[in-house]
Design goal:
The protein contains eight helices and four strands; from the N terminus they run βαβαββαααααα. The chain has helices spanning 15-25, 43-46, 67-77, 91-112, 130-143, 154-169, 176-186, 189-201; strands at 5-9, 30-33, 56-59, 62-65. Helix 3 packs antiparallel against helix 6 (154-169), helix 4 (91-112) packs parallel to helix 6 and helix 6 packs across helix 7. By secondary structure, it is of the alpha+beta class. The protein has two domains: 5-82 and 191-201, Glutaredoxin; 87-188, Glutathione S-transferase Yfyf (Class Pi), Chain A, domain 2. Helix content is 50%, strand content 8%.
Length: 203
């Protein structure tokens, strides 16, 4: 019997990334929708994720939080889906998966909160400046069909989600490179299934 696989999520959260990744694996999983507010801070849920946030994936006895970690874990847990390159070819895969989780998200969040570092402070933050982050990202998504090379991977699920949300909600200024990349990575049956499931859960 396969180990039980459960997604703890909310349809208006980063849980959409984890669901997309689960749909890409083709694995069967159950969904537990956790409401914002007291349910997410209940002792029962804090025992699963002490941060009181979603998403969480439970796979048997293994609990994984943080979207980038969930994407990387599921790619390895279900290798038949081909969502991670061979180990010897994972340089770009790891680089861009964690570039999105670190410099990209931090730079955009700081800017949106009015906390952009000045010239002196830029040496003390991991991303330097948001201009450097976005210029780097624009070049990266233009270099290949997918972020880690010619094949779609878990890194595209995670980075693509950030770009898609940024374009939709205005935290990323639209440019041909971002729009074209998002069109490529979101043109997948797994993405459409995941989006339909989360949209349905919002009704």
């Amino acid at each position: 019997m396969p180990e039980p696989l459960v997604l703890y999520t909310h349809p208006m959260s980063r849980g959409r990334i984890a669901r997309w990744m689960l749909e890409e694996t083709g694995a069967r999983y159950d969904t537990e929708v956790v409401e914002f507010g007291p349910p997410m801070k209940s002792p029962q849920y804090l025992a699963i994720n002490p941060m009181g946030k979603v998403p969480v994936v439970r796979h048997g006895e293994t609990i994984v939080t943080e979207c980038a970690a969930i994407c990387a874990y599921l790619a390895d847990a279900f290798p038949q889906a081909g969502l991670a390159p061979p180990l010897a070819e994972r340089g770009a895969y790891y680089r861009w998966l964690f570039f999105a989780a670190g410099p990209l998200e931090a730079a955009i969040t700081d800017r949106d909160l009015g906390m952009e570092p000045n010239i002196t402070q830029q040496g003390r933050v991991g991303y330097g400046s948001i201009e450097a982050v976005l210029e780097t990202l624009e070049v990266a998504v233009s270099a290949h069909e997918f972020i880690a090379g010619p094949r779609f991977s878990a890194a595209d699920v995670y980075l693509g989600s950030h770009i898609g949300w940024g374009l939709q909600y205005g935290s990323l200024e639209s440019c041909p490179a971002f729009a074209d990349y998002w069109a490529r990575v979101s043109n997948r049956e797994a993405y459409r299934r995941a989006t339909a499931l989360d949209d349905q859960a919002m009704r």
